[in-house]
Amino acid sequence: MPDEELGAVLADIGARLALPRAPLAPSVVARLRERRRSARRWTLRMLAPALATLVLLLAIVAVASPEVRAAAREILRIGGIEIFPVPTVSPRPSASATPLSISGQRMTLEDARRAVGFAVRVPDVPVLGSPDDVIVDTTPVQRVTLVYREREGIPTSPVAGVAALVVEVRGDVEPTFFGKGVGPDTKIEPVTVAGSPGYWLEGAPHFFFVRTADGSIRDETLRLAGNTLVWVDDGVTYRLEAQVSRDEALRIASSFR
Amino acid sequence: MGAESDSVEGRPTEDALLVQRSRDGDRDAYAELVTRYEGVAARTAYVITGNEEDAEDVAQEAFVKAFYALDRFRPDAPFRPWLLRIVANEAINRRKARRRRATVDLSVVEDRASPDTALSPEAAALAGERRDRVLAALRSLRDDDRLVIAYRYFFELSEAEMADALAVARGTVKSRLSRAIARLRDVMGESGEMDV
After folding, report:
1. A250 burial via Cβ count (<10 Å: 0-12, 13-18, 19+)
2. Is A195 left (phi over 0), alpha (psi -120 to 50) or beta?
3. B144 to chain A nearest CA, in Å?
4. Chain mean pLDDT for chain A
5. Sign of CA pseudo-dihedral A58, A188, A77, A35
6. From CA A82, how far away is CA B178, in angstroms rounded?
7. Cβ atoms of residues A203 and A186 within 8 Å
8. Of A33, A38, A172, B147, which has the maximum CB count within 10 A?
9. Rounded CA gap, B164 and B175, in Å?
10. CA nearest to B155, candidates A25, A20, A21, A15
11. Which residue, among A28, A212, A195, has the nearest Cα to A103 in the 3D structure?
12. What pTM was computed for the model?
């Protein structure tokens, strides 16, 4: 092969390297935050979240399957949510039969804003409009859930009978935290929402679980089993669940005010 | 070594500004640097590890390490080769930790719908064959040979940048590259050095 041809083939190969598959900046920034936090003070108290995580993983191992041990190698942490890969996620049998039930108190948006210690923000897009229900829970963590029932242009979840859910959680509450189980068929993509780090989860169903202040673990019922955008802004973890595309989810997320 | 001002790939002035701001703890500035160089970083890692997941993880880790090493970085020096040195180092360590095999699983994207309409199906097939041949030879090369070829032909680094990234004297770059190409040709069953 002549020199210039070899050079051209090599350049062609170089042009066909398709990496990275998703922007790296959000995960790099997340790692920097993580590192700074862990470098601060390595006391037993600092280890508490890690120990809690371990407890949680053991709990998943107990309820799921033996292969979990191998899969629990990577944990993505963002704000108050930790995302755990698990080999399989089977919908709870009850989830398909019962309508969505969210613990907490139904109230107006104004009352919700007074009830929790953080700024409750809502999406401002025509496709969603105003939420049908605002549900506030203060235990185990301060959490506001916005429920959007049927919406034109967004498929209604057969599981829950709603089109979209927005969940807002004070993100820095420890040792209580949220976890999210992610099966092998779920795509996880780091994203940036208005300059804040986040993840886009698409595909197979995922579930949430909560470790309560007294140390017990309960799983939150499988929600919409749909696509989820999670991001953290100013100490609050936001989660948008709706059967929409990534771009649409990002558009909705950037309209929060 | 080799941080001559004539290696002006990228946007060095802006880089220096972003580096300065990153040093002061500005994460947004650093995120901008990451965005600017994540392609070359992840691909460099991939050339060594031959595994996409490892490559992305290595690149992220290298960016984190680079952030903490910024204090030791001369702000007027070019950022890209300095970063690549950290990336390559990290990638080689990863490959060692993975009990590296002789060859890596280096692969590239094939033609999609019609990226090159100028090529007839026959010509495209021929180009694909040539690509596969060279790719197969690359896979069996030593890590450092693959790296030097990638720097020159994949990422088009200048000689000064290559010297900087490889931490060698500028005069050594040419001979390294021509030896790597000779070994590539050798694996392909051809002989002769390339005039680089």
Report:
1. buried
2. left
3. 16
4. 69
5. positive
6. 49
7. yes
8. B147
9. 15
10. A15
11. A212
12. 0.51
* A157, A163 contact by CB (below 8 A): yes
**Least Cα separation, residue B70 to chain A (angstroms):** 13
Distances B142 to B92, B105, B164 between C-alpha atoms, Å: 11, 13, 20
The token pair that represents A154 in the structure block:
């967004």
Report d(CA A62, CA A83) in Å as an integer: 18
| pLDDT > 50? residue A67 | no
> Which residue is closest to B28 within chain A, CA to CA?
A195
Mean pLDDT of B7-12: 51
Q: Can you read off the two tokens belonging to residue A246? A: 């990534």
Least confident range of A135-139, A198-202, A212-216? A212-216
Q: Kindly report, residue by residue over A142-186, the tens digit of the pLDDT.
A: 788 898 888 888 888 765 678 888 888 775 433 334 455 555 556
Query: Which residues from A are below 8 Å from B32, CB to CB?
Result: 25
- The Cα–Cα gap between A60 and B54 comes to 26
User: Across residues A17-21, what is the average pLDDT?
Assistant: 90
Torsion of CA B18, B32, B46, B64, to 10 degrees: 70
Please report which confidence band the pLDDT of residue B155 belongs to, taking 50, 70 and 90 as the band edges: very high
Closest CA to A32 of B14, B104, B30, B183: B30
Condensed to tens digits (0 to 9), the pLDDT of residues B104-144 reads: 778 888 765 445 556 677 888 888 899 999 999 999 999 99
- Listed in order, strand segments (DSSP E) in A48-195 are 76-78, 81-85, 105-106, 133-137, 143-148, 164-170, 177-182, 186-193
Selecting from B59, B68, B131 the residue whose C-beta is nearest the C-beta of A20 gives B59
**Contact check, Cβ <8 Å, B46/A19:** yes
Reported ipTM: the value is 0.87
CA distances from B150 to A9, A58, A250 (A): 12, 44, 35
Q: How far apart are CA B72 and CA B66, in angstroms?
A: 9
